[in-house]
Design the sequence.
């Protein structure tokens, strides 16, 4: 019964959410998700609504109104809080830690990647011609070599970053 109700309401919910999303300042998928959650909570506590299509339309409008209210109040970050231009002690510590992790990972790269990455990250802002001369390689091979080194660096850093998982 519940599965049939959800299957039956899916196209209507998609259409209603699409119609309401623009006016509410939200994404249709966000409205759909909120209404699905509301419906599942209702099914668990009270059972199916007597008029499922009417209930669904009302729920979409309610979620749209709620979204409009919060959209006017909430503001997204322009960047990460750690990128705050005021350079407080927390931001400086986080930036230093990120730089330290990258420098350590660069040192562990294979072959001439550490020298290449050091040249690319140099504060002297070297050109490709200068980097190629410094490393003794052709300027044409610098791009592919850089790509390979960046791929290795990404893999090293990805392995060190804690991914979502069980804690405790």
Sequence:
């Amino acid at each position: 019964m519940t599965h049939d109700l959800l299957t039956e309401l899916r196209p209507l919910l998609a259409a209603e959410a699409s119609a309401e999303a623009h006016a509410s300042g939200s994404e249709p998928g966000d409205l759909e998700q909120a209404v699905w959650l509301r419906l599942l909570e209702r099914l668990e506590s009270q059972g199916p609504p007597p008029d499922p299509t009417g209930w669904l339309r009302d729920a979409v409008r309610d979620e749209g109104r709620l979204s409009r209210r919060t959209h006017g109040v909430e503001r997204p970050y322009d960047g990460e809080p750690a990128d705050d231009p005021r350079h407080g002690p927390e931001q400086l510590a986080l930036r230093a830690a990120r730089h330290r992790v990258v420098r350590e990972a660069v040192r562990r790269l294979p072959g001439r990647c550490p020298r290449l990455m050091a040249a690319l990250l140099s504060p002297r802002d070297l050109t490709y011609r200068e980097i190629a001369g410094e490393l003794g390689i052709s300027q044409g091979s610098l791009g592919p070599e850089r790509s390979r080194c960046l791929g290795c660096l990404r893999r090293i850093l990805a392995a060190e970053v804690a991914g979502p998982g069980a804690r405790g």
Observations:
- The chain has a mean pLDDT of 83.
- The chain has seven helices and no strands.
- Helices lie at 2-24, 28-45, 52-73, 89-107, 113-120, 128-135, 139-160.
